[in-house]
Amino acid sequence: MYQPRILVPAAAALVFLGLALLIVSGRSFSLDTTLIMLFRDAANPAVPLGPAWFQEAVRDMTALGSFIGLFFMALTATLALWLCGYRHLAIGLVVSLVAAFLASTGLKIAIARERPDIVEHAALTFTASFPSGHAFLSAVTLLTIAGFVGLASRRADIARFCMVMAVVMVGLIGLSRIYLGVHWPSDVLGGWALGIVWSSVATAWLGRRMAESDPA
Fold first, then answer.
1. Rounded distance, CA 192 to CA 170, Å?
2. Crossing angle between the packed helical segments 133-153 and 87-111, to the nearest 10 degrees
3. CB neighbours (10 Å) of residue 32?
4. Chain-centroid distance, C-alpha 174
5. CB-based contact 41:122 (threshold 8 Å)
6. Rounded CA Rg of the chain
7. Is 34 exposed, middle or buried (0-12, 13-18, 19+ CB in 10 A)?
8. Rounded to 5 degrees, what are φ and ψ at 117?
9. What is the C-alpha to C-alpha distance for residues 72 and 207, in angstroms, rounded to an integer?
10. Model pLDDT for residues 43-52, shown as the tens digit of each residue
11. Nearest-5° angle of CA 108, CA 63, CA 18?
């Protein structure tokens, strides 16, 4: 029963470490270029595939993984836990997310990977490329919220529902970054992997400790 809870974050940790080491060593991935070009018009690579309304929808999706979007999701979840009496869980959620933000910033500065330069960016960028902040922080925020809500509800069906919704949103946010040309696919994969590790540890270690101090 608990084997997947260990194997998945363990595998994710290996994926992130492998990608980080290869990127730091100056390695490039031909698959990165291939996957980005799949989202582009072959006749005009500056233009993403799809009609204008779809491109706008993708920008809306990527906005959900922005600092502002995730801030309001985290604030809502934190206040909901607090008002329902799960104050230790609320504090644990804030601690985990703030630490993740600092880690994301530090990793970007340390690794300093350049953004994709093979297509025109369809969104503004201000930081380095690896790991994708949208992929990492959306995974940490949404998966940790799902995990903490599951702990608070003490119901397996609610925990599963929240986790499925979180995984779908995290996946779409990450793909939107590739579609917009602002991240290499390996940036997004690295962000997802690290986010899975972070949220798993936060839920299994910090979340469970905090839940023990909250009402049954």
1. 8
2. 160
3. 19
4. 7
5. no
6. 18
7. exposed
8. -120, 15
9. 20
10. 787 888 888 8
11. 35
Q: Identity (one letter) of the amino acid at 4?
A: P
Burial 155-189 (b: 16+ CB within 10 A, else e): eeeebeebbeebbebbebbbbbbbbbbbbbbbbbb
Residue 153 and residue 159 in contact, taking contact as beta carbons nearer than 8 Å: yes
Instruction: Name every residue whose Cβ is closer than 8 Å to that of residue 183 and which is 6 or more positions away in sequence.
Output: 115, 116, 129, 132, 134, 135, 177
Q: Is 200 exposed, middle or buried (0-12, 13-18, 19+ CB in 10 A)?
A: buried
Q: Check whether 115 has a pLDDT greater than 50.
A: yes
For 134-171, write each residue's pLDDT tens digit: 999 999 999 999 999 988 888 888 889 999 999 999 99
Q: If DSSP states are collapsed to H, E and C, what string results for the chain?
A: CCHHHHHHHHHHHHHHHHHHHHHHCCCCCHHHHHHHHHCEECCEEEEECCCHHHHHHHHHHHHHCCHHHHHHHHHHHHHHHHHCCCHHHHHHHHHHHHHHHHHHHHHHHHHCCCCCCCCCCCCCCCCCCCCCHHHHHHHHHHHHHHHHHHHHHCCHHHHHHHHHHHHHHHHHHHHHHHHCCCCCHHHHHHHHHHHHHHHHHHHHHHHHHHHHCCCC
Q: Is the pLDDT confidence value at 3 over 70?
A: no
